[in-house]
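Supplementary Methods, section 5.1.

A reviewer requested that the exact input to the structure prediction be made available. We therefore reproduce it here, unchanged from the version used in the analyses.
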Amino acid sequence: MGEDHVLVSVPDAALREAFGAAPEGVEIVEWDMAGPPPAAVIDIVVPPYMGGTGLLAALEGVTARLVQSQSIGFDGVAAALPPGNVFANAVSVHETSTAELAVALILASQRGLPEFVRAAGRGTWTPLRRPSLADRTVLLVGYGGVGKAIEDRLRGFETTVVRVATRAREEPAGHVHGIDELPSLLPQADIVVVGVPLSDATTHLINDGFLSLLRDDALVVNISRGAVADTPALLDHARRGRLRLALDVTDPEPLPDGHPLFDLPNVLITPHVGGASSAMMPRMARLLRRQAERMLRGEEPLNVVVRT
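The structure derived from this sequence is encoded token-by-token as follows.
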């Protein structure tokens, strides 16, 4: 049985504008979850992007049929979401942009772009021979939507891609190794890209033991969550010049001003902007439209990851 009316709250005018004209039966209102809710019953609530799980407490006393996140990650949601709610993540929204940034971090680190930018800022011409991306072995730790999108973008760079997921399996692109095989796979890698969800099992996955298995001058790219890596271990290996790092996420986050990671020439840091591109808002609006239309038709929502 479908619905005659679906009320959707969005956190800001930008998403409302990207959504455009609402289909018949869909009403859009703005609610940033900082003030009182616009109604006691809201069919779909979209929290602010990167607003943190603390905002979910605003749903106490609100009847919401679906909480539609603007992020892929959902660590901490189950503990913060009031009982009786359904939470969906933003699969299909961020994979492309996150994969773009991952490849950009790899290319910038391999070809030494930060060094050239610093040299140009000093007004000096400093030619350097740097490692290529071609002919390198890239280990993708995490082979969901983002991992697959990264592999798609690496195909033209003549790399060898090794895939790793929670469990070994076969995919159309080839064999996927289980995460239990990491001890034998890490020593073979020139570049490791970590894109796993944060969970008890993946917290500090990138630790001293993980890093010690890598060959000297390997590049570690973290696009998942900051706590997937043990920051003191990262700092130790980078300070010794043994490894290079490219980090879109850190622990703590934001990284405090003056943190020693900022000072290291072999560390490239971006401020958790993997999904923050011009592609995000139109894709988020399309996902939200699909969710509203499915609700009108009486269909189950997409991407449900938590029920409380």
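The chain has a mean pLDDT of 97. These observations are discussed further in the main text.
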